[in-house]
Specification:
about 290 residues, 10 helices, 9-stranded mixed beta sheet, alpha/beta
């Protein structure tokens, strides 16, 4: 005997199958906000090309809704040297579609981005930290996005260590908001559940398809809505507190917000917050 849920699951499967057949890249640029000349700078430290699309939902809100100047920092161009030039071109196209600025850490990005490099090759690691510190000094961001410490993937973890090491090199009066992201490894203590509007999610998916080489290997872009839906389920417990009522979000992403001040990361509030699309995301960064 079938129930209405049999039809629902069949529709999910059908839509997923159809999504895999949709075109990749080649779309005209998405509509972008008009930013003030002195709009605050936001840096998104992407461990790999495509992270700016996958986990950048809140960053996209900061750009579009908060009208802040969002710049992607390409920490690496992947570990396959034969693909790095192509991945840079794909990244340029994805950022152009979304309207993001783009900064390179070097002709081929940074290499040997693995936590063990910090211990086994301290000179190389120090040179990479200097690159990030120089970008922070030049860009003077109000907000930075980067992976959390336990995001499983070695390059993601290395990016977290790299950014924190660079922050420790900054002047004592340097301040910015820290937003840690998650993808491969879920955070145990996120403090923000950020609603992602359907049009923004659609643009994130479309932008991801410009990374054609990766999408052909694994069409993960079509799974973003399912992941964002599951974030609502998980976020209402781990971000907002056990047993709490779930906000009426369809899609959400989870983050940890703190502030770098006095040479350390400090909490801004206790507990967690849900940030509906009706609230201007810029209010988080007074």
């Amino acid at each position: 005997m079938e129930t209405p849920y049999h039809k629902l699951v069949a529709e999910y499967a059908r839509l997923l199958s159809e999504g895999k057949q949709l075109p990749l890249g080649g779309f005209p640029p998405a509509e972008r906000p008009k930013l003030a000349a002195d709009a605050p700078k936001v840096l998104f430290f992407a461990p790999h090309p495509d992270d700016e699309c996958i986990v950048g939902g809140m960053a996209l809100r900061v750009f579009r809704q908060g009208q802040m100047n969002l710049v992607n920092v390409a920490v690496t161009l992947g570990s396959k040297k034969e693909r790095q030039a192509e991945r840079w071109r794909e990244l340029q196209q994805a950022c152009q579609y979304l309207g993001l600025g783009l900064v390179s850490t070097g002709p081929n990005g940074l290499d040997k981005m693995h936590p063990r490099t910090r211990e086994t090759e301290p000179q190389h690691w120090a040179s990479c930290v200097n690159v990030i510190a120089r970008i922070l000094e030049e860009q003077k961001p109000k907000v930075i996005f980067f992976p959390h410490r336990d995001d499983w993937n070695s390059t993601h973890i290395a990016t977290n260590l790299l950014v924190f090491d660079a922050l420790k090199q900054m002047r004592a009066d340097f301040e910015c908001y820290l937003v840690e992201t998650e993808f491969w490894g879920a955070m145990t203590d996120p403090n923000l559940m950020v609603e992602i509007a359907a049009p923004d999610l659609a643009d994130m998916m479309a932008a991801t398809t410009f990374h054609v080489g990766e999408i052909k290997r694994n069409p993960y872009h079509v799974l973003l809505p399912a992941w964002m839906m599951d974030n609502v389920r998980r976020g209402c417990e781990v971000a907002l507190g056990q047993g709490g009522a779930a906000p009426d979000f369809t899609f959400a992403a989870l983050y940890r917000l703190r502030k770098w001040t006095g040479g350390q990361a400090v909490k801004l509030f206790e507990g967690g917050k849900a940030v509906p699309y009706s609230q201007n995301i810029r209010e988080l960064f007074p």
